[in-house]
Amino acid sequence: MSLSLSGRFPEVHGHRGCRGLRPENTLPAFREALRLGVDAVELDVVVSADRQVVVSHEPWMSAAICRLPSGKPIAPSEARQHNLYQLPYARIREYDCGLTRHPNFPEQQPEPAIKPLLREVVADLENLTRQLGRSPVKYSVEIKSEPAHDGLFQPPPAELLALVLAEIQALQIMPRTTLLCFDKRILQLAYHAVPTLPLCLLIEDALLLAGHLSALGFTPAVVGPDFRLLTSALAAELAGQHIRLVPWTVNEPADLRAVLALDPWGITTDYPERLLALR
């Protein structure tokens, strides 16, 4: 039964696949999310030294979830030394990012997994979609970008965006893709490069919506706030401007119900099965 005001149940967006159940941003996580029945898979992308679009939340190997090619853990103080932007993708594939369970997700089932290329994820999910006989899945692609990382952990914004857009175009998933980013520079470039591509401004601070939109310079199709920032007033303000609301990352049943009452367009969650159970 829908709990939303509009009578429609929001889209279920699997965060990093289904981080609560499988290693984040890996093929096992995306496959499980698809089997569960998500409407969209949310994933993060960065760029390797040889300009491959790699699915990863950090532009380095996280000490919390990744292991060295030798199988040994990565010291937290050394994580950023394993800079994906300075590693060719063949080298990146030698690290494991699935065998170490994330400490915040006790239900996560560890298994061997690498950081895949965006093209690998899409090819795998498109094939699985056909096998399952289900409707095509949508893609929420977050470009990880920070001004302080330019030239160190990522290429300049224009090059970073161009690499990601070229991959999305080659994969023929543009009509089913929304581009997400905290970095307004990326969204501004994308707005002019591909006016028809839905863009999502991600928000994690307490700056008023008007301030964010003024700095952005245009009205995005979607706004994705940290759900802890979400109020009925913000939801109404977004609805009044015809901006779709897709908050992140909503995991606990009580929080899911509270967010559902605000009638979002979608909800991003590490536990898609919990949200799907409410549908």
Structure report:
- By secondary structure, the protein is α/β, with parallel strands linked by helices.
- The chain has a single domain (11-58, 104-278), classed as TIM Barrel, CATH 3.20.20.190.
- It is built from nine helices and nine strands.
- The chain has helices at residues 27-36, 89-92, 118-132, 157-170, 184-193, 209-216, 232-240, 253-260, 272-278; strands spanning 11-15, 40-47, 53-55, 138-143, 177-181, 199-203, 222-225, 244-245, 266-269.
- Strands 1, 2, 3, 4, 5, 6, 7, 8 and 9 form a nine-stranded mixed sheet that branches.
- Strand 1, helix 1 (27-36) and strand 2 form a beta-alpha-beta unit.
- This is Glycerophosphodiester phosphodiesterase.
- Residues 10-279 form the GP-PDE domain.
- GO terms for molecular function: phosphoric diester hydrolase activity.
In total, the number of strands is 9
- List the domain count as a whole number: 1
The top level CATH class name: Alpha Beta
Cα distance spanning the termini: 5 Å
Q: What is Rg?
A: 18 Å
H and E order? EHEEHHEHEHEHEHEHEH
Largest sheet: 9 strands, mixed
CATH architecture: Alpha-Beta Barrel
Rounded average pLDDT: 97
How much helicity do the residues have? 25-40%
Which residues form runs of ≥5 with pLDDT under 50? none
- Fraction in beta strands: 15-25%
CATH topology group: TIM Barrel
Look at the structure and name the CATH superfamily: Phosphatidylinositol (PI) phosphodiesterase
Pick out its properties.
phosphoric diester hydrolase activity; GP_PDE_dom; 279 residues; nine-stranded mixed beta sheet; PLC-like_Pdiesterase_TIM-brl; globular; Glycerophosphodiester phosphodiesterase
